[in-house]
Design goal:
Elements (H helix, E strand, L loop, with lengths): L2 H9 L3 E3 L22 E3 L6 E2 L2 H15 L3 H5 L8 H31 L3 H19 L7 H14 L2 H16 L6 H17 L3 H19 L7 H13 L3 H24 L14 H20 L5 H17 L3 H15 L8 H14 L13
Antiparallel strand pairs: 1-2, 2-3
Helix pairs in contact: 2-4, 2-5, 4-5, 4-6, 4-12, 5-6, 6-7, 6-8, 7-8, 8-9, 9-10, 10-11, 11-13, 12-13, 13-14, 14-15
Length: about 375
């Protein structure tokens, strides 16, 4: 049974009908996604409601499956406490759970965006925004990350007017908050650059990506994996402008940064040690996979592209998936990297690639063939 089939069969037993007329006078249950009158409720948490099964299914796949039980204490009526200390303790607990919910929904939305699942990311991004409003108020700068997630999802879906609306709200909030962090500013310019790219305003996109890189480098440094995301997006714009030399130079910077980062992580791995699944979060892994695969595809489609760069990118993908706990994918990209390394004069990566193939083969309980690991 496929994951989609399992999800649908599971969903069918998660809802029960509600009668809006049975609600207390003046009280209405609203759909989690569209805020229209609700007729169904989740039978697991009983505090989340939907207008129809389609919205319930979309919310379950998007975020609700991960946070169903977390919603119960937040959305359940506050118990009566006679002592102020008890009331304060209860409020502090609810605030902590709300902040946890903001971070979980934000991480889920970001991962889905990196995977190109724009429609699926919307429920998590919407929940992140609502929770942030509840905690910080309707005009706080803490709402900006959620606005940016919603904007990115709508750019991916081609709903550019909606994306522009979210970005305008985010930009206005940042402008009136002088103490806004460099992190929020870099994220804002990155998403403005994406919108400008989608509208074919390529010069405007490059300006925003340049600002993105500036603010990211101020916070993280020039050779950081966060900063290099801006280089990758700039390179894509230069490809649209048919400036392949500039794009290739930026791709080299991205590949070198990720290769160095992953090599350092791999160096901490010793035979028999635990895998490093938690060396980076799922969103970072999805972002790296998306960028590196895109770069490899462009490089392989260009006969003039240097094979050394192909080796660097394929080796990075192999390390990424090995550290992420997927030895099969590590073997796939490791073999590609090894084949590419044999075609360039500099064989400095051959030995590290062979070692990684051996580790991945052992982790996957298989043995690499001689073709996979030729003598150095």
């Amino acid at each position: 049974m496929s994951s989609i089939t399992r999800s649908k069969s599971h969903i069918s037993v998660l809802t029960s009908a509600i009668n809006p007329l049975a609600n207390p006078k003046g009280a209405k249950k609203l759909c989690e996604l569209c805020q229209n009158l609700a007729y169904l409720q989740c039978t697991k948490c009983r505090v989340t409601f939907y207008c129809d099964k389609e919205h319930q299914q979309a919310d379950w796949v998007g975020i609700h499956e991960k946070i169903c039980q977390l919603l119960i204490p937040i959305r359940t009526a506050t118990p009566f406490h006679s002592l102020k200390a008890d009331r304060d303790h209860h409020r502090a607990q609810i605030l902590h759970r709300q902040e946890e919910l903001i971070e979980i929904s934000r991480a889920v939305a970001q991962k889905k965006l990196f995977e190109g699942k724009y429609q699926e990311s919307l429920p998590a991004a919407q929940l992140s925004l609502r929770c942030a409003m509840d905690v910080y108020g309707p005009s706080a700068v803490q709402l900006v990350p959620a606005y940016l997630l919603l904007a990115e999802a709508n750019v991916g879906l081609g709903s550019l007017a909606q994306a522009e609306g979210y970005l305008s709200q985010a930009e206005w909030t940042v402008m009136k908050t002088p103490e806004c962090s460099q992190i929020v500013r870099h994220q804002l310019h990155r998403n403005l650059g994406r919108l400008y790219t989608a509208t074919e305003n390529l010069e405007g996109a490059l300006l925003h990506f340049a600002n993105d890189v500036y603010y990211a480098s101020e916070e993280y440094g020039l050779d950081n994996i966060v900063t290099c995301g801006g280089y990758f997006l700039m390179a894509n714009v230069f490809i649209k402008q048919e400036k392949m030399d500039i794009a290739s130079s930026l791709y080299t910077e991205v590949a070198s940064t990720w290769h160095s980062h992953l090599t350092k992580l791999l160096e901490t791995h010793t035979p028999g040690s635990m895998m490093l699944e938690h060396s980076f979060d799922e969103a970072q892994q999805a972002e790296a996979d998306q960028m590196l695969r895109a770069m490899l595809k462009v490089q392989e489609s260009s006969p003039k592209q240097a094979t050394a760069q192909n080796t660097l990118v394929a080796h990075s993908l192999a390390m990424l998936w090995f550290l992420g706990g997927s030895p099969g994918k590590a073997l796939e990209f490791g073999r590609k990297a090894l084949q590419s390394s044999q075609l360039v004069p500099d064989h400095s990566l051959t030995e590290p690639i062979q070692s990684l193939l051996q580790l991945a083969a052992e982790r996957g309980h298989t043995l690499p063939s001689q073709a996979d690991c030729p003598p150095a």
